[in-house]
Design brief:
Blueprint lengths: L1 E2 L2 H12 L9 E2 L14 E3 L2 E3 L2 E2 L9 E3 L2 E3 L2 E3 L7 E3 L2 E3 L2 E6 L9 E3 L2 E6 L9 E13 L2 E11 L5 E2 L1
Parallel strand pairs: 1-2, 3-6, 4-7, 5-8, 6-9, 7-10, 8-11, 10-12, 11-13, 12-14, 13-14
Antiparallel strand pairs: 14-15, 15-16
């Protein structure tokens, strides 16, 4: 896995905006300062993000993340509409005040994550899993608002399996 510097990442994001970006596959993005970066419509695949903090100044709407491992990251009021986070693994992450409007989280696993005021009700959740997660005022589906701890799994049809 190739370690990516802050300068290289910012140059790549600018290049992706011009549609001539370099490949951000198999990259270690652990030391990146994400503050103020616009990842809208950008692709990051099979990479590692560790210890990142995403806040309202970062945009993730329309981004594509495929097969990434996201560890010990915080997401607070980040725009994620129409994002594709496919086959990703979130470990020990925290999400607060998020609405994942039309986001696709298919085959994504959340392990030991915490969710406060998060709305997944309009997200695509095909085969998504939550393992050992905590929830406060979290809307898993249009009909299920949950507070507590637990494990949840969604079916191949994207339906919550109770």
């Amino acid at each position: 896995m190739k370690k990516i510097s802050q300068e290289d990442l910012e140059a790549n994001l600018a290049a992706q905006a011009r549609e001539d970006g370099i490949d951000l596959s198999n990259a270690d993005l652990s030391d990146i300062a994400w503050h103020g970066l616009d990842l809208s419509g950008k692709t990051i695949a099979t990479s590692v993000l560790r210890g990142a903090h995403f806040s309202p100044t970062e945009a993730l709407h329309g981004c594509t993340w495929i097969g990434n491992r996201i560890e010990n990251c915080r997401f607070e009021s980040v725009s994620t509409s129409k994002a594709e986070m496919l086959d990703c693994e979130f470990r020990e992450c925290a999400m607060r005040a998020m609405r994942l409007f039309r986001a696709d989280l298919s085959r994504t696993t959340f392990s030991s994550c915490g969710f406060v005021d998060v709305d997944f009700s309009e997200a695509v959740m095909i085969r998504a899993r939550f393992e050992n997660c905590s929830f406060v005022g979290t809307r898993l589906t249009k009909d299920v608002l949950f507070t507590g701890t637990g494990d949840f799994q969604f079916s191949a049809d994207g339906e919550l399996e109770l």
